[in-house]
Design brief:
Layout (H helix, E strand, L loop, with lengths): L1 H8 L6 E4 L6 H10 L4 E6 L2 H10 L7 E5 L5 H8 L6 E6 L3 H5 L25 H7 L2 H12 L4 H11 L5 H10 L18 H16 L3 E8 L4 E8 L2
Parallel strand pairs: 1-2, 1-4, 2-3
Antiparallel strand pairs: 4-6, 5-6
Helix pairs in contact: 7-8, 8-9
């Protein structure tokens, strides 16, 4: 989606841009290249490892980028503290990064055995292990239905409760598959572990006000199966 990011952000040389989910730095790198010369970028991510990964990748633009470990819900506060204003574009890429799936220690992938975790940040205390092994059956069913749109959510929740304790990703995948669901129980989707619904609500409230006043325009994709939410907010000239 790099081309779409650059097109809808309308990146211009010398502009100031914020990548609120910097991840591995791919989008940030493309923005910095398009904004040269003179462009500046503020990169935000809740995951300390992502910030360090991005720092290494963006080293050629070290003088033009500021990376901060923070939650995107604190965008306004981070910008004020860094005196990073005015802005010409803000990017939110809300989804699961491939590097998280590739790291077994994070417990996101169901392809390799790992302890259930699924936290985007070490500062988060709630893990997938706690959800799977302590939530009531109805809570699990509601979570799987709401964030995974899984028709067999109640059957899957019943199977999970009956198979406790479940310690690893592959154990959970096997239970879900046997219960008639997919290999991915969708516990790390929008809510649950990945990020709090309140955080997204706060950003969307800001977004709604800005669009209503004509300050921002948007481009968004929502794919149901992957549960990816991708939004670009562009400040109108």
């Amino acid at each position: 989606m790099v081309d779409e990011v650059l097109r809808y952000l309308a990146v211009q040389p010398g502009g100031r841009y914020v990548d609120c989910t910097v991840g591995g730095g791919g989008h940030s790198l493309a923005i910095l290249e398009a904004a040269a010369p003179g462009g500046l970028l503020l990169g935000i991510d809740a995951d300390a490892r992502a910030v360090e990964t991005a720092r290494a990748r963006l080293q050629p633009f070290a003088d033009s980028v500021l990376l901060v470990q923070a939650n995107f819900r604190d965008l306004a506060a981070v910008c004020r503290k860094a005196d990073f204003v005015p802005l010409h574009g803000v990017l939110f890429d809300l989804g699961l990064s491939s590097y998280l799936l590739a790291d077994p220690e994070r417990g996101f992938s169901f392809q390799v055995e790992a302890r259930l975790d699924m936290r985007f940040s070490e500062h988060q205390t709630l893990t997938a292990y706690e959800i799977v092994n302590s939530y009531a059956e109805r809570e699990l069913a509601d979570l799987i239905w709401r964030f995974g749109e899984e028709q067999a959510s109640r059957r899957i929740a019943r199977a999970i409760v009956g198979a406790r304790p479940i310690a690893t990703t592959t154990e959970l995948a096997a239970v879900v598959s046997k219960a008639g669901g997919g290999a991915d129980p969708n516990l790390n989707r929008r809510g649950g572990i990945s990020f709090d619904r309140q955080e997204l609500s706060q950003i969307l409230n800001v977004y709604g006000r800005k669009v209503a006043t004509g300050e921002w325009r948007d481009y968004a994709i929502d794919t149901l199966r992957e549960k990816a939410v991708f939004s670009v907010f562009r400040r109108a000239s």
